[in-house]
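User: Batch of two.

Assistant: Item 1 of 2:
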Amino acid sequence: MTMAFVLISTEMGSERKVLEELKKIDEVSEAYIVYGVYDIVAKIEVRDVDELKNIVSNKIRAIDYVRSTLTMIGAEGFRK
């Protein structure tokens, strides 16, 4: 299992529209509108890095109003 956080910049004022589109992507397990340099943080859970590449490149970046993304692949962590 591969897990990643995708930081998403959107066109101004379109955060909620993008969040609604992210809900339609099965591999997006969580997504939040945030304040700061990025507008949305999405958690992606997939089988492998190739599937992650496909989701980010062909699904997330294809959403209208998405300006840019930054993907951080999880390496180690814990969950309570």
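Item 2 of 2:
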Amino acid sequence: MNFELNDTQRQLQDSVRRLLADHCSFDKRRAIAASADGRSAELWSRLAELGVTGLRVPEAHGGFGGRLEDLLPVLQACGAALVTEPVLASAVLGATALACAADAATAARLLPGVADGSRIVAWAHDEPGAHHAECWVETRAEARAGGWVLAGTKSTVLHGALAAQFVVSARVAGAPGDRGGRALFVVDAGAAGLRRRDFRLVDDTPASELQLEGVAAMPLGDPHDGAHATRAIETTLAAGTAAACADMLGAAEEAFRLSMDYLNVRQQFGRLIGANQALRHRAADMLVSLEMARSMAMAAAVAADRPGDEDSAADLARAKLVVGKHARLVCQHGVQCHGGIGMTEEYAVGHCLRRVHVLDHLFGDASAQAQRLAALAALA
């Protein structure tokens, strides 16, 4: 695939890289991850100043109306720096869900804050019983006293502790695995009946589990228009999948860079370990895998920018499978090249592997993507 950054994308990527080099070096990143919030308000503000938080927000609401292709270089840079800011949580998932599903009044109320970074809107879709099933929603929505209330559990809500609002998927009809019968709702973080359990993922990303017990919610669009909700959910998941691929690519690129630097400075028995043929072969394998991941991350961004296309779902599943497999291989080889130091808290290459592990499981791991490809092939 011939994919070259245009001047605007290149300038933004360079600006983000410089910002992260100054404010999110590995030592600073460790301090940020160890803080109570697990993120830096100053870094988030600076990312917002560069326009990162508004890339997916329509221009009418203060954003740039960008495509996933525009986010690809930014997310690569964030992946390489192992950023723990809510870029994926709010700037991609939250912004995409609101832009796709919200009516004009709700969009005007919420999206400007998402665009300037002052409002975090988290995506609450995954559930404990889903096991990567795309359509699985057990959370129920019920019309009551002229409004709607939700009951259920949402797992792995990225940056839930920072969110002012949640975009929550719930079922108004049908069985948990049905494609239809779903709707999207906005829930305020302080709503009565909402309980939140906060934790950290293995790569230090903050996440939450939400327990909803009769929580008041505002529907995004007509709750009984299942086609509208399905389009919004699938578009949001596609954007998240492509973003995860780009982030994994960035982490793999950093693991490769660290490994090559180490092979070219570490000496053993009077010679550079990079002169050993076995390690040279491993480095070549890493480079091949890195190029595979790069090509498929680009393919994922292109596919996510054409929702509804008959081939986009297969292209996304294929890309997520391949990027996850090869990014993991690059990071695992990187740890092996470093030996024991590679798995210590004080060295970055092991954290790159943790990042890839988390992102590989978001939106469906390799097995789930293979099952989706098989199902799509059966329908063809």
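Strands lie at 121-124, 140-144, 147-158, 165-171, 182-188, 194-200, 206-219, 267-268, 271-272.
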